[in-house]
Task: inverse folding
């Protein structure tokens, strides 16, 4: 299928990433899968490769490229190989936009050089036990000290991807009570140093999928956060979160499309090799029809994902468009991966086959970043319903 979204630079980057995955990831991926996370020094390798600095300004050690297309290539290449880069996706897709949008010059000087090298990994702590998609219902608090030098942070977060390895976490907390006419008021963002006294990482959560991505519970007991580590203005955090949700949802949509494309590739390869009743599985009409239908869905998802990518890079991706892309691509991936697993027969249920891992990894796409039901609500509202 002809595409216009990538140019020669992106394709050269793709070759670099594909070679890196083959040399540094594939040989040890089973070990990472068993351990439930990637080794911390792997992120330093990603930093050396320049992945974390692509969108970081040159003055802070990055390449200064204002585009998500290199991230898109990584989504496609990791899915193609049936691997992941652990929790590093939140570092760039979730952490960096907030720093670029909200950080002062002094904060950028302090944080971005180590961000680009992977010496300081970032995560985002928004979700709390019992709140789920209701961000405005958060209970974590940050109270300014009497002398104004620091905030005292108390509360807990859960489902925090990258939470085990994170060196600094953007924590959403209440600095004021919600208003009667605006329950979203009073939330602020803080870039919290994970070495701070009273900060603790709880359980590394045992997930259905995304096994190499460290997801954790976090707790804050009288954590002192320097006032200079406030991100943006006090009490305006909810608005900031909404600004970056479109890019997060694009990332989930594009990743889901890439997973669906990978599933078709895995199934196509498998049915050509697997024989039953003296014939290859690929020779049966049902197999051909199933894979043809899957490919048609992947083609459509690719077009939607690419269109959203172009809009995101142009600064024109609306909340409704991002929601639509996420809803469509994740639902396509759900259907396609399930059908491709079916073509593997019993082997599709074995974790040694990438299709099984992909099936488990894909399930969360319709939950995190806003559930499919929330996406439908956003789309319906944009339709005036």
Result:
């Amino acid at each position: 299928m002809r595409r216009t979204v990538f140019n020669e630079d992106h394709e050269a980057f793709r070759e670099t990433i594909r070679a890196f995955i083959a040399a540094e990831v594939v040989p040890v991926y089973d070990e990472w899968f068993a351990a439930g996370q990637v080794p911390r020094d792997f992120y330093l390798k990603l930093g050396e490769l320049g992945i974390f600095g692509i969108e970081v300004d040159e003055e802070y050690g990055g390449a200064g490229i204002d585009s998500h297309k290199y991230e898109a290539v990584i989504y496609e290449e990791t899915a193609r190989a049936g691997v992941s880069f652990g929790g590093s996706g939140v570092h760039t897709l979730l952490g960096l936009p907030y720093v670029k949008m909200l950080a002062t010059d002094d904060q950028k000087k302090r944080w971005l050089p180590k961000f680009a090298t992977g010496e300081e990994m970032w995560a985002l702590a928004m979700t709390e036990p019992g709140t789920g998609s209701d961000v405005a219902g958060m209970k974590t608090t940050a109270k300014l000290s009497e002398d104004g030098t620091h905030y005292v942070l108390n509360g807990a977060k859960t489902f925090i991807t990258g939470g085990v390895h994170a060196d600094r976490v953007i924590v959403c907390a209440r600095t004021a009570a919600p208003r009667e006419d605006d329950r979203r008021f009073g939330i602020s963002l803080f870039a919290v140093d994970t070495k701070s006294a009273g900060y603790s990482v709880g359980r590394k959560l045992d997930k259905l999928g995304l096994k190499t991505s460290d997801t954790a519970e976090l707790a804050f007991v009288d954590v002192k956060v320097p006032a200079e580590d406030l991100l943006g203005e006090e009490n305006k955090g909810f608005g900031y979160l909404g600004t970056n949700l479109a890019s997060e949802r694009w990332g989930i949509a594009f990743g889901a499309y890439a997973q669906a494309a990978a599933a078709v590739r895995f199934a196509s390869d498998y049915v050509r090799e697997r024989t039953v009743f003296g014939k290859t599985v690929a020779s049966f009409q049902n197999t051909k029809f199933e894979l043809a239908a899957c490919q048609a869905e992947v083609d459509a998802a690719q077009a939607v994902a690419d269109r959203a990518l172009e809009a995101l890079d142009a600064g024109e991706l609306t909340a409704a468009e991002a929601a639509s892309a996420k809803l469509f691509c994740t639902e396509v991936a759900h259907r396609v991966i399930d059908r491709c697993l079916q073509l593997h027969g019993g082997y599709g249920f074995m974790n040694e086959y990438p299709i099984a891992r992909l099936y488990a990894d894909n399930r969360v796409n319709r939950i995190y970043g806003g559930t499919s039901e929330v996406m439908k609500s956003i789309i319906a509202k944009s339709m005036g319903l």
The longest helix spans residues 237-273. The longest strand covers residues 150-161.
